[in-house]
């Protein structure tokens, strides 16, 4: 099911780097949330925030961010580079799902929608 701006975000629970369960509902209770998906672990990114991790790709599927077949390496089940802004009411305010893994989301657009 395609993700659309204005729809209720699908809740999920994942583990952070300290192996603590964190849900989207927990996060949106405190502030707006930016969700970033990126393909393959070796993708070069300098992140200054906590990562939530999963291995079964359920959340990528929920957010329509999974390649059926990754173009470069003929791999299946690779996450698409994507960005979403979810407000405190759990509504999707911004969604960008990129078809090409070598592109990055428009972070200036995301910053405008994060408040």
UniProtKB/TrEMBL annotation:
InterPro entries: Thioredoxin-like_sf, Tpx_Peroxidase_subfamily. This is Uncharacterized protein. Keywords: Redox-active center. SUPFAM superfamilies: Thioredoxin-like. It comes from Rotaria sordida.
